Amino acid sequence: MIESNLKKYSQLETLNVSRETFPALEEFRSLLLSENKKINLISKSTEKESINRHIIDSAQITDIIDINTKSCIDLGSGSGLPGVVLAIIFKKKGSKIKFDLYEKSQKKSNFLRKMVRHFKLNAEVKQKNIFEERELEADIIVARAFKPLQTILELIDKNFVHYNRLILFLGKSGKGVINECLKSWKLDYEIIESLTDANSVIVKISNLKKNMKEKIISIINQKGGVGKTTTVINLAAGLSLNNKKVLVIDLDPQGNATTGLGLSNVDQTYNSIYQVLSGTKKINEAISKTRFSNLDVITSNVDLSGLEVETADDRRRAYILKEKLTAYLNDSGGVYDYVLIDCPPSLSLLTVMALVASHSLLVPLQTEFFALEGITQLIKTIDRIKVGLNPELMIRGILLTMYDKRNKLSGEVETEARNYFKQKVYKNVVPRNVRLSEAPSHGMPVIFYDKNCPGSKSYINFTEEFLAQEESFETAA
Fold it and tell me: Which of 35, 141, 146, 148 lies at a 20 to 30 A Cα distance from 167?
């Protein structure tokens, strides 16, 4: 019986797997089936076909992994498919590849440890939730029956700082899944027909980049004192707490977003958005880290106020920010999930630059008498920009700020805004709250300064609404 089973592995010879490896693979299969009686490692319905369905299927990617590869991560190893199978094969080849087998289940992790010890494999079982790991590195990443492709790509993008190739096993709808993902991702890939299932495919992926559609967002209102900068820094902070990587560009010469995130708008005159727009610095050179995880900023200072005069002879000056930002984001491989631009409280050249560079706009609207009158002027400006400079520009949403439920006027402005702008007005509103004014003086977003105050709670809820809106955009796409 054992001899007849070994013959079934013969097709692996075409993948440069030696006959001497077959007994070890068969022994692993036997141990797998034995343990499957105690814990759920593989489907009971596939046990009779386990040689072809599981072992050979896992082994078929052997010839697309370089023997000199140093490290390989199996994202959700589970029953050791494909991680243990590959580790056995490459041990027989004399390779020094180190395999990290990620599995959060204790029972499955214990089984994997037994296999690693039994076959003396160059592998380590990591009983962890890989979605909670950060700064991961590997030459090769493999995954079989783990998660949907879109989820895997998000994981790779956010949690890995380096990898060379991603190898995935996809089922019958594999080609269609790839085409769907291309709406959200730029990637180099190759599809290989499965050796064991005519309807399945193997896909090799490299150079993964996230499309930036709808991700560059200007927070804008030509009227000052409406909560614009407060919205920028607290939305950025809220997104960062949701594991989104955010870059804030302070495009206001007053530099309030800069100080509100704990940096100086005086000391960093050599390293600001002014240097980027005047051509003396590249964007990657001007980015400053804040003390908040996932949140970076390009600072601003009073030097920026002279840019309009300095660029008076440049016919393409409205495109300067767009060209520099687009080039950086393309080259960096989508390192940021969102770029938030804090615009000055005026309809100046700097505001036009922001409108040209952005995919969408977020408008804070103070609930006061003249607010709606001012926003109609802003919409006319946006319409002019769409005609001549940025036809894709859209208003993402309007956020009501400085709301006082005790004040009858606030309620009237809200009603009028919702009647006029309909679903464009966010459900959440930001109340008047002294903590919102205090937090910037401490160089902190309010959701870090006092997470329990009404202003903080309103921005946390608004961030959730903002992210839900993002999901609806992706579904529509």
Answer: 35
pLDDT for the residue numbered 212: 57
pTM of the model: 0.59
Compute the C-alpha angle 186/70/190, nearest 5°.
30
Structure tokens of 143?
């995954």
Confidence class for position 476, pLDDT limits 50, 70, 90? very low
Q: Which residue, among 173, 133, 126, 125, has the nearest Cα to 150 in the 3D structure?
A: 173
Name the token pair of 95.
Answer: 């390779």
Question: 243 and 128 share a domain?
Answer: no
User: What's the CATH code of the domain at 346?
Assistant: 3.40.50.300
422 phi-psi bin (left φ>0, alpha ψ -120 to 50, beta other): left
With pLDDT > 70 as the criterion, what percentage of the chain qualifies?
A: 95
Same domain? 204 vs 236: no
Could you tell me the CA-to-CA distances from 348 to 13, 323, 422 in Å, in that order?
A: 69, 19, 28
Whether the Cβ atoms of residue 341 and residue 218 lie closer than 8 Å to each other: yes
**Is 210 within 8 Å of 334 (Cβ atoms)?**
yes
Using CA of residue 67, residue 9, residue 30, residue 128, what is the dihedral sign? positive
DSSP 3-state of 134:
coil
Average pLDDT value for residue range 272-281: 90
What is the per-residue pLDDT across 319-339, written as a single tens digit (0 to 9) for each?
999 989 888 887 765 678 899
Provide the 8-state DSSP code for 266.
S
The more confident residue out of 416 and 111 is 111
- Number of folded domains that form the chain: 2
Kindly report the CATH number assigned to the domain that includes residue 141.
Answer: 3.40.50.150
Q: Which of 181, 209, 237 is the last residue of a domain?
A: 209
Identify the CA nearest to 250 among candidates 238, 233, 266: 233
Band the pLDDT of 475: cuts 50, 70, 90: very low
Q: Which helix or strand (DSSP H or E) is residue 289 part of? A: strand 287-289
One DSSP character per residue, 333-376 reads: TS--SEEEEE--SSSSHHHHHHHHH-SEEEEEEESSTTHHHHHH
Helix, strand, coil percentages (3-state) for the chain, rounded to 5, are 45, 20, 35
Amino acid at 97: I
Residue 386 DSSP SS3: helix
Which residue's structure tokens are 């206001």? 252
